[in-house]
């Protein structure tokens, strides 16, 4: 009982100290209430409350973005005659990418890190601290890009927005790294749940891509965030905006061969999509142009593709819904193919060209300066692959082909192969189509596609460039590589040290004659007493009036200590938490052993990763 009262007293004193230290007397009333609750509630209780607040906010952001883009699309595609739509397809996609790039350069100072990789980068490299600007910058950029016809998806920007909301909420209430990461994931979860009205898929997205090592108690904030995001989407969005598919056939085990073949086909297409994306990204980076000129070039390419093939305009969900509703002829009637006689062969040729060019349209949209993600493009492509496969089977002579089901599971297959997220893809389509009886074909197609993608590349291509630089660890394989490294190999045992009671001139001589920029301060038994960096010493080197009497006057405590038994993965986490690049290593008796460098660990990791990939 005394311990409980002592904890309450310490909690009250901490809140009072924070109130004064952080200027909370100027905080808004709701912030004061939440600060008070943070000190009164248990950790789990406050995390559940935080999940509700973060989920609701991220859900509203997702609803806002979807509504904006849908309104723009509705105006462009339904309010004007076909000839004027052609003009719009020429102007708006070009304008969307150029405007987005201009806004990034002028308002957001050129900072345009985007996509799921941006979230993982902040988790791994920035202690899950996301800039507050991302709470609205992603909405502005993606609304302009996709709203005006960019061939990309809104789900990645929504996820980044939700992650920024969760991270900044956690920063406001000074939560720990683990809790901050959890709420960051909760915000992304709510964003995905609101975009697709699929809460389970949102949770799977967080577990499959963002989080590792989550305990059961941490599962609850993700659930409540996903529910809040999905509910807001269901209540506020109109039916035609929702990602919903009502028409489908009952699952028949006799159709399993169709799903087996489709799984292979979607896996191969996903690989094609990835290769084209990488080629286009490399091509655009190599262009000797300013960012604005690259945006103009990419916008011109995108506009041309949209004029020739209108299904490439925007997210493409309406096209997929047309497949499931049997309205394919309407798709062709809105293109230049309307001037040809519409037969089954015409439809096949048209859809093959759309599939081949979708990878180019999406890549030019994203890498030339637009803002969007691969969620919607992969779903669109998968649905198109499924429909094309179905009508080809019919042309060959097969009867009772489950066309709608092939469209739905094709979406899951392509998304699984492009995003490396089979569980997210399975639950997303199951929830969006109310097709829980399709779990077997969804699992067959998604897993086959995923295995094919993993066979070509063990790491998600969207994250490969960052993984090659050692900035993020994308899967368990990366952690296995880190576990294979030995801490002993990275300790610099020739690090320079100086006795704490030595004359200050000894330290200056060490600086002048040595080649290190960090020094250990030890006692006679080599016990670590503190550290000094070159930046700490520099002010005294050329100013005799400021020279301290003893070394202990200027030495400082290290941000953290590394022990010889610590593993590289744990050490990297300490580096991320402290924000430094060199830390002292001590033995069990706190005797100084040497310094360890973060860059040295990352270099070894990159080398092993390269050898594995080769």
UniProtKB/TrEMBL annotation:
Domain of life: Bacteria
GO cellular component labels: chloride channel complex
Keyword Membrane on entry: yes
Segments passing through the bilayer: 46-66, 86-108, 182-207, 219-237, 258-275, 295-313, 345-369, 375-393, 405-430, 436-456
Keywords (A to Z) from UniProt: CBS domain, Chloride, Chloride channel, Ion channel, Ion transport, Membrane, Transmembrane, Transmembrane helix, Transport
Residues of the CBS domain: 491-547, 555-611
Any one Gene Ontology molecular-function term assigned to this protein's record: chloride channel activity
Cellular localisation: Membrane
Keyword set includes Membrane: yes
SUPFAM superfamilies linked: CBS-domain pair, Clc chloride channel
Membrane topology: Multi-pass membrane protein
A UniProt-annotated Pfam family: Voltage_CLC
InterPro entries attached to this UniProt entry: CBS_dom (IPR000644), CBS_dom_sf (IPR046342), Cl-channel_core (IPR014743), ClC (IPR001807), ClC-type_chloride_channel (IPR050368)
Protein name according to UniProt: CIC family chloride channel protein
């Amino acid at each position: 009982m005394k311990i409980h009262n002592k904890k309450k007293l310490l909690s009250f004193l901490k809140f009072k100290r924070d109130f004064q230290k952080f200027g909370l007397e100027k905080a808004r009333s709701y912030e004061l209430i939440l600060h008070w609750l943070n000190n009164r509630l248990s950790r789990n209780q406050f995390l559940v409350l935080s999940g509700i607040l973060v989920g609701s906010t991220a859900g509203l952001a997702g609803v806002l973005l979807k509504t904006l883009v849908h309104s723009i699309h509705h105006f462009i595609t339904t309010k004007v005659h076909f000839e004027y739509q052609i003009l719009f397809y020429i102007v708006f996609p070009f304008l969307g990418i150029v405007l987005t790039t201009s806004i990034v350069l002028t308002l957001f100072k050129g900072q345009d890190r985007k996509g799921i990789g941006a979230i993982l980068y902040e988790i791994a490299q920035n202690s899950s601290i996301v800039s507050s600007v991302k709470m609205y910058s992603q909405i502005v950029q993606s609304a302009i890009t996709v709203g005006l016809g960019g061939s990309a998806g809104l789900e990645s920007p929504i996820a980044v927005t939700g992650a920024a909301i969760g991270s900044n909420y956690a920063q406001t209430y000074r939560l720990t790294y683990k809790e901050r990461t959890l709420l960051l994931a909760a915000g992304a979860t709510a964003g995905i749940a609101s975009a697709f009205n699929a809460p389970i898929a949102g949770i799977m997205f967080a577990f499959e891509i963002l989080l590792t090592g989550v305990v059961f108690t941490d599962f609850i904030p993700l659930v409540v965030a996903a529910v809040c995001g999905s509910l807001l989407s269901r209540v506020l969005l109109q039916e035609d905006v929702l990602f919903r598919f009502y028409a489908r056939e009952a699952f028949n085990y006799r159709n399993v061969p169709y799903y087996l073949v489709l799984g292979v086909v979607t896996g191969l297409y996903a690989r094609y999509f990835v290769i084209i994306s990488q080629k286009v990204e490399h091509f655009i980076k190599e262009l000797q142009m300013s960012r604005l000129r690259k945006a103009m070039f990419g916008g011109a390419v995108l506009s041309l593709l949209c004029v020739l093939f209108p299904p490439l305009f925007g997210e493409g969900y309406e096209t997929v819904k047309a497949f499931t509703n049997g309205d394919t002829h309407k798709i062709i009637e809105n293109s230049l193919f309307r001037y040809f006689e519409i037969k089954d062969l015409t439809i096949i040729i048209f859809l093959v060209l759309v599939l081949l060019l979708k990878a180019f349209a999406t890549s030019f949209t994203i890498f030339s300066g637009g803002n969007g993600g691969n969620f919607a493009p992969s779903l669109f492509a998968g649905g198109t692959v499924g429909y094309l496969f179905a009508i080809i089977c019919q042309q060959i002579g097969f009867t009772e082909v489950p066309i709608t089901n092939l469209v739905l599971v094709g979406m899951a297959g392509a998304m699984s192969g492009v995003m490396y997220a089979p569980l997210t893809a399975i639950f997303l389509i199951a929830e969006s189509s109310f097709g829980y009886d399709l779990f077997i074909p969804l699992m067959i197609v998604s897993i086959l596609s995923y295995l094919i993608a993993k066979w070509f590349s063990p790491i998600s291509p969207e994250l490969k460039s960052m993984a090659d630089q050692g900035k993020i660890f994308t899967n368990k394989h990366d952690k296995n590589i880190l576990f294979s490294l030995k801490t002993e190999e990275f300790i610099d045992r020739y690090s320079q040290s100086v006795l704490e009671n030595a004359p200050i001139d000894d330290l200056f001589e060490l600086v002048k004659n040595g080649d290190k920029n960090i020094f250990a301060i030890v006692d006679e038994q080599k016990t670590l007493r503190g550290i000094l960096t070159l930046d700490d010493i520099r002010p005294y080197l050329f100013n005799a009036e400021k020279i301290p009497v003893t070394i202990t006057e200027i030495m400082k405590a290290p941000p953290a200590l590394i022990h010889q038994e610590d593993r590289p993965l744990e050490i990297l986490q300490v580096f991320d938490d402290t924000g430094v690049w060199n830390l002292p290593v001590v033995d069990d008796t706190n005797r100084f052993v040497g310094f360890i460098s973060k860059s040295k660990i990352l270099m070894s990791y990159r080398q092993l990763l390269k050898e594995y990939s080769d």
